């Protein structure tokens, strides 16, 4: 259900076509909630059917049309209600922990390769997320820049601060994953 609210969050910045939603999703919300276009477009249609957003057909090219979506007052109310609820935490599915619990079945070389891949994966994400924090602070993220146009400058530190906080948390978790995987390399060497 969080995809619905991720889309609401995005549409609170400005009306967008389905394609724009997908493109901007990847540049903003997509860093904290992954969803392919095969999930986004059907969810937009369900949200429209539920009255959370409205879609208006616009001419596109010489013969085509595209739909521009806007969040409705009901959509804003549902989004605000969701924001004010405490999350129910789902049970985790953590493939690296599952795999690590049974590394005795892997060769030491394969176990080391897995941990090095884990380190590389999270190290790359740290760079991406730090770039996102920088884009939040310098307003070079187009979705954030558009959102800020709708608010007085006195509100900007709060808007930026919460967005940066989300990425800072992701960076801290990624740094913990890197530390853990480096420790795992030592354990693999000790147990090999």
TrEMBL record:
InterPro entries: Tscrpt_reg_PadR_C, Tscrpt_reg_PadR_N, WH-like_DNA-bd_sf, WH_DNA-bd_sf
Origin superkingdom: Bacteria
Gene Ontology MF terms in the entry: DNA binding
Residue ranges of every copy of the Transcription regulator PadR C-terminal domain listed in the record: 93-188
Domain Transcription regulator PadR N-terminal: residue ranges: 9-80
Keywords carried by this UniProt record: DNA-binding
Record-linked SUPFAM superfamilies: Winged helix' DNA-binding domain
Pfam families the UniProt entry points to: PadR (PF03551), Vir_act_alpha_C (PF10400)
Protein's name in the database: DNA-binding PadR family transcriptional regulator
């Amino acid at each position: 259900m969080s995809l619905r609210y991720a889309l609401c969050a995005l549409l609170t910045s400005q009306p967008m076509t389905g394609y724009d939603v997908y493109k901007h999703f990847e540049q903003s919300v997509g860093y904290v909630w992954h969803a392919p276009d095969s999930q986004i477009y059907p969810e937009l249609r369900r949200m429209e059917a539920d009255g959370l957003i409205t879609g208006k057909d616009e001419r596109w090219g010489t013969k085509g049309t595209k739909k521009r979506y806007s969040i409705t007052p009901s959509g804003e109310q549902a989004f605000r209600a969701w924001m004010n609820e405490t999350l129910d935490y789902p049970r985790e599915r953590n493939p690296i922990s599952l795999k690590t619990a049974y590394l005795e079945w892997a060769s030491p070389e394969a176990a080391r390769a897995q941990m090095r891949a884990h380190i590389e994966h999270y190290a790359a994400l740290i760079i991406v997320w730090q770039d996102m924090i920088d884009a939040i602070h310098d307003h070079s993220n187009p979705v954030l820049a558009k959102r800020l146009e709708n608010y007085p400058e006195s509100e900007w530190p709060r808007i930026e601060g919460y967005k940066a906080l989300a990425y800072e948390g992701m960076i801290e978790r990624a740094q913990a994953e890197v530390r853990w995987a480096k420790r795992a390399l030592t354990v693999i060497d000790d147990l090999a």
